[in-house]
Amino acid sequence: MAIRRCQGLLSAAGLSLTLAVPLPSAVFAGESPQEIRKALVGLAAYAGCKERHAGYSAERAQRIISSGIANNGWQSQADWLRSPQALRVVAITTDAMNKSCDDFDQNSKDFVPAMQAIDAL
């Protein structure tokens, strides 16, 4: 179910897309692809969490993702968000977030698997 929600969210993006950490403060152009992917996971998980818990529409959540990609210069890794790996990591990270979407719920059964999935990127 969570992966389907992420696929729907990602496919709604202008790129046809859907917080290992809370929203990353900044990933600079010189950062590695892996660091950008971690930031993208955070961004997409935050947007998915807001859709789930704050009543954001899928369109609004998608605008968060699209704007984050454009504003941070993450276009080089944006297509990766369509991959099965990304869908899985975003889904489990979204599930591990608290209802305020500003941190993780460390009591969640998904917390440790989310951290492991993020570390494996």
Brief synopsis:
The protein is built from 6 helices and no strands. The protein is an all-alpha fold and 121 residues long.
Mean pLDDT: 82
Largest sheet: none
Task: Kindly report how far apart the N and C termini lie.
Answer: 22 Å
Please bin the fraction of helical residues: 55-70%
Q: Rough shape?
A: globular
Description:
Helices cover 60% and strands 0% of the residues. It contains six helices and no strands. With 121 residues, it is mainly alpha-helical. The chain has helices spanning 2-11, 33-53, 58-72, 75-78, 84-96, 111-119.
Topology summary:
Layout: H1 2-11, H2 33-53, H3 58-72, H4 75-78, H5 84-96, H6 111-119
Keywords:
121 residues, mainly alpha, globular, disordered N terminus
